[in-house]
Amino acid sequence: MKAVSAGTGLKPEHARDIFESPRAVDFFEVHAENYMGAGGPPHHLLRRIAAGYALSVHGVGLSIGGAGALDRDHLARLKKLIGDVRPAMFSEHLAWSSHDGVYLNDLLPLPYNAHTLTCVVRHIDEVQHTLDTRMLLENPSTYVSFEASELDEAEFLRAVAARTGCGLLLDVNNVYVSSVNHGFDAAAYIDRFPIEFVGEIHLAGFAEDQDADAGRLLIDAHGAPVAEAVWSLYRRTLARSGPVPTLIEWDNDVPDFATVVAEVSLARAALVEEASRRDRRHAA
């Protein structure tokens, strides 16, 4: 996939616009768990999209950060899906979502210490060996932190990538959401992130609420345009990374395709601007 590529999530309600309008995005992302059934309309749409666009498969159910063993049946279904559509990228979350056979409808955080590092590394090694593909690991949005943490998040992700050879998916919105919720400097986080491992970037909108002390609380809701503060962090990221394939996530209160395309176009413009800036610097 070209570095100057901007895409969005595949939504069935946008299918007509995708096929009947001029090509407006460079790639589509699909959540793996939505396509693990035997077939039907979702697979028909996915095959049509895969014939004309690059795909990014994004998993939400492997529970990479869980203490227990990975679900082998889930991993087998994921392997079949990836073999069928041959995506340009595959990613999962630094989170856990199941325990002792109980599956939770959430992506939950984990402490950043030696024990969880060993678990995450073991799971990623198993995933990459089973799928025979390099995965990208996404930084989470979080609402609580752990006293048991011994590393900060960027250090933890660097250690995981270095030990497993996996790449990283840098979700810039998650960085901003977590920075507000925990009171850290989002720009400083971006500046120390292990950018050399980043293979994809996510951007999304957040919702705003209040915590129990009436403080500002941000929710990674994926139901609004990307905020200007996140666009600013994105441009700062590109200044370090150079152009990296970028996805606009809009999964709730999904608008018409034209509205999503407008956000994708803003990301593409930033990618083109950074590519041009680097070309000028190299030519000087």
What would you say about this model in short?
The chain has 284 residues and is of the alpha/beta class.
Shape: globular
* Share in helix: 40-55%
Element order, helices and strands?
A: EHEHEHEEEHEHEHHEEEHEH
What's the mean pLDDT score? 92
Query: Regions with pLDDT < 50 over 5+ consecutive residues?
Result: none
Q: What characterizes the major β-sheet?
A: 8 strands, parallel, barrel
Question: How many beta strands in the DSSP annotation?
Answer: 12
Q: For the CA atoms, what is the radius of gyration?
A: 18 Å
Helix/sheet category:
alpha/beta
From the N-terminal CA to the C-terminal CA, the straight-line distance is 28 Å
**Discrete helix count:** 9
- How much strand content do the residues show? 15-25%
Describe the structure.
The structure is a single chain. The protein has 284 residues and is of the alpha/beta class. Helices cover 43% and strands 20% of the residues. It has nine helices and twelve strands. The strands form three sheets. It has an eight-stranded parallel beta barrel, surrounded by four helices. A two-stranded antiparallel ribbon has the order 5-6. A two-stranded antiparallel ribbon has the order 10-11. Helix 4 (114-131) crosses helix 5 (153-164), helix 7 runs parallel beside helix 8 and helix 8 (228-241) runs parallel beside helix 9. 40% of the residues are buried. The mean pLDDT is 92.
